[in-house]
C-alpha cells in the first residue's frame, strides 16, 4: 500500500512538471540556392550513380569489393561504432535517472552491548537483560528525485542528441573511409598505368639503342650518339623505382583501410587493370540538400542540440530538488520472528534540497553552458559552409581535369605520329638523333601527364560524391 501511494505521488508530480531552459530550434546558415560551379557534364556513355552506393557506378568489381570491405573492417569505423554503443548506454542511463530506484536491503548482526554505555548501564539492572543480541533486517527501499522543473529531462534530451550525433558521426566516418579506399584504389591503378607507360618507353628506347649501335657499327653514326641514347634509356629506367614505391604505398594504405596488416590483400591487385570510368553526378543536388544529407553536418547539429539542452540542465540548479523515499521491511532481534506483523516497519519521507547561496556557481554554470551552445552553433555553421566549399572545389577540379585530360589525349596522339616520323627520318639520314630523343622525351612526359590527369579526374569524382554526402542512407 505504501509503495502504491509512493508511485501515485511520483506520477502526479511528473505530470505537473515543466522543463526549464530553451527548447531546441534548428538553426539556419546562409547557403546559396545553387552552386557557383555547375555539376560537370557526364562523359559520353557514363552510367548514373546511386548516391548511397556511388562506387558501384564505376562498374569495377575490384573497386566495389575493396570499398565495401573497408567499410566493414576498418578500425576507425569500429571505434565510431563503439562510441555509438556508449552513447546509447548513456541515453538509457539518463532515462533511468527519471524513474524511482527500488532496492532490496537486508542485514544480520551479532553484537555485544557495553555495560558501561548508556544503554548497557541502564538495561543491566532490568530483569531479563542480555548484553548479547542478534539483529536481523530485510525489506525494500525506494527513492526518487522528482524532476519537478525538468533538469533531468533536459539531461535525457542532451543524451538523445548525443546519441544521434554519434550515429551521424559513424556514418560520416564510414563515408570518409569509403571515399579514401576508392581514392587509394584509383591511385594504385594510376601508378600501374604510369609504370606501363614507363616500361613501354623503356622498350622503345632499347630498340632505339640497338638501332644506334647498328648504325655506329656501319660507320654512319657517331659514338657519342650511342652514349646519349644509353643515357636516355637510363633516365627512363630511373623513373620506374619511384613509381613502384608509390604503388606499394597505396597498396599498403588500402590494406590498413581494410583493417589488415600491410601486404594482406596485395595479391588481389597484382594484375593490371584499366582505370574505371566515373559515373555521372546527380545534377539536381543543391546546397540546401547538404544540410539533410551530409552526416558530418547532422552530427554537428546533434552536438548543437545537446549543448542547447544542457543549458536547461544548468538552469535546473536554480530550483529546489524534491525527493521522496520509502521503506517497507522487517526488523527483529529474533530471526525466527522476522517476518511477523510485530516486526514489520514502514516509512515514507519527503526531502528538499535548494542551493540558495552558492556565490554565483550556478550563474557560472549557466554562462558556461550558453558559451558551449554558442560554440556548437558556430561549429555547425562552419561545417555547413565547408561542406558547400568542398562540393564547389570538387566540381571545379573534376571539370578542369577532364578538360586537361582531353587536351593531353590529343597531344599524345600527335606526339606518337611525330615520333614515328622522326625515327623514319633518322633511319633515312634526313634527321638527327636529337629529334628522335626529343620526340621520345615529349611522348613519355605527355603520356605520363595524361595518366596522372585521368587519375586526378577520377579522384575528383570520388571527392564530389563524398562532398555531396554519398555513401550512406
On the 0-100 scale, what is the average pLDDT? 88
Supply the number of helical segments: 10
Low-confidence sequence ranges: none
- Domain count: the total is 1
CATH class: Mainly Alpha
Q: What is the number of E strands? A: 4
Order of strands, widest sheet:
1-2-3-4
CATH architecture: Up-down Bundle
Summarize the biggest pleated sheet: 4 strands, antiparallel
What portion of the residues fall into strands of 2 or more residues?
A: 5-15%
Q: Give helix % range.
A: 55-70%
Secondary-structure element pattern, one letter each: HHHEHEHHHHEEHH
Could you name the CATH topology?
Outer membrane efflux proteins (OEP)
Structural description of this entry:
The chain is an alpha+beta fold and 473 residues long. The protein has one domain: Outer membrane efflux proteins (OEP) (Up-down Bundle), CATH 1.20.1600.10. It has 10 helices and 4 strands, in the order H-H-H-E-H-E-H-H-H-H-E-E-H-H. The chain has helices spanning 2-15, 61-73, 75-96, 118-123, 151-217, 223-257, 287-293, 295-315, 361-427, 433-467, and strands at 101-112, 132-146, 321-332, 344-353. Strands 1-2-3-4 form a 4-stranded antiparallel β-sheet, covered by helices on one side. It is elongated, with a radius of gyration of 38 Å. The two termini are 51 Å apart.
Brief overview, please?
This protein is α+β, with helices and mostly antiparallel strands and 473 residues long.
Question: Any chance you could write out the topology, listing elements then pairs?
Answer:
Blueprint: H1 2-15, H2 61-73, H3 75-96, E1 101-112, H4 118-123, E2 132-146, H5 151-217, H6 223-257, H7 287-293, H8 295-315, E3 321-332, E4 344-353, H9 361-427, H10 433-467
Antiparallel strand pairs: 1-2, 2-3, 3-4
Helix pairs in contact: 2-5, 3-5, 5-6, 5-8, 5-10, 8-9, 9-10
Amino acid at each position: 500500500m505504501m509503495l502504491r501511494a509512493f508511485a501515485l505521488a511520483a506520477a502526479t508530480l511528473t505530470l505537473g512538471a515543466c522543463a526549464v531552459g530553451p527548447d531546441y530550434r534548428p538553426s539556419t546558415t546562409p547557403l546559396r540556392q545553387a552552386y557557383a560551379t555547375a555539376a560537370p557534364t557526364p562523359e559520353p556513355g557514363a552510367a548514373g550513380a546511386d548516391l548511397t552506393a556511388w562506387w558501384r557506378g564505376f562498374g569495377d568489381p575490384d573497386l566495389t569489393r575493396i570499398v565495401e570491405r573497408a567499410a566493414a573492417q576498418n578500425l576507425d569505423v569500429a571505434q565510431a561504432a563503439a562510441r555509438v554503443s556508449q552513447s546509447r548506454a548513456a541515453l538509457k542511463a539518463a532515462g533511468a535517472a527519471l524513474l524511482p530506484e527500488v532496492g532490496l536491503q537486508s542485514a544480520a548482526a551479532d553484537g555485544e552491548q557495553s555495560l558501561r554505555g548508556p544503554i548497557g548501564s541502564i538495561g543491566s539492572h532490568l530483569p531479563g537483560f542480555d548484553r548479547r543480541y542478534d539483529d536481523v533486517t530485510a525489506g525494500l527501499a525506494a527513492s526518487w528525485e522528482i524532476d519537478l522543473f525538468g533538469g533531468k529531462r533536459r539531461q535525457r534530451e542532451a543524451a538523445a542528441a548525443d546519441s544521434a550525433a554519434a550515429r551521424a558521426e559513424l556514418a560520416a566516418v564510414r563515408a570518409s573511409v569509403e571515399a579514401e579506399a576508392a581514392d587509394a584504389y584509383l591511385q594504385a591503378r594510376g601508378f600501374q598505368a604510369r609504370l606501363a607507360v614507363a616500361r613501354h618507353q623503356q622498350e622503345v628506347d632499347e630498340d632505339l639503342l640497338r638501332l644506334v649501335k647498328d648504325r655506329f657499327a656501319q660507320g654512319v653514326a657517331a659514338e657519342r650518339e650511342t652514349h646519349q641514347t644509353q643515357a636516355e634509356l637510363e633516365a627512363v629506367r630511373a623513373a620506374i623505382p619511384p613509381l613502384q614505391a608509390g604503388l606499394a604505398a597505396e597498396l599498403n594504405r588500402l590494406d590498413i583501410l581494410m583493417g589488415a596488416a600491410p601486404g594482406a590483400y596485395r595479391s588481389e591487385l597484382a594484375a593490371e587493370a584499366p582505370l574505371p570510368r566515373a559515373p555521372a553526378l546527380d545534377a539536381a543536388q543543391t546546397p540546401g540538400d547538404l544540410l539533410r544529407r551530409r552526416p558530418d553536418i547532422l552530427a554537428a547539429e546533434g552536438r548543437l542540440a545537446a549543448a542547447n539542452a544542457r543549458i536547461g540542465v544548468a538552469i535546473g540548479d536554480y530550483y529546489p530538488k524534491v525527493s521522496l523515499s520509502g521503506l517497507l521491511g522487517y526488523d527483529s532481534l529474533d530471526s525466527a520472528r522476522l517476518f511477523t506483523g510485530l516486526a514489520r516497519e514502514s516509512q515514507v519521507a519527503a526531502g528538499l534540497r535548494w542551493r540558495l547561496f552558492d556565490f554565483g556557481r550556478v550563474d557560472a554554470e549557466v554562462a558556461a553552458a550558453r558559451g558551449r551552445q554558442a560554440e556548437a552553433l558556430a561549429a555547425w555553421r562552419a561545417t555547413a559552409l565547408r561542406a558547400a566549399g568542398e562540393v564547389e572545389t570538387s566540381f571545379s577540379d573534376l571539370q578542369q581535369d577532364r578538360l586537361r585530360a582531353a587536351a593531353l589525349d590529343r597531344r599524345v596522339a600527335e606526339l606518337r605520329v611525330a615520333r614515328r616520323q622522326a625515327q623514319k627520318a633518322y633511319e633515312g639520314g634526313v634527321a638527327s638523333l636529337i629529334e628522335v630523343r626529343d620526340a621520345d622525351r615529349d611522348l613519355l612526359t605527355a603520356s605520363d601527364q595524361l595518366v596522372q590527369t585521368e587519375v586526378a579526374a577520377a579522384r575528383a569524382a570520388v571527392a564530389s560524391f563524398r562532398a555531396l554526402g554519398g555513401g550512406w542512407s
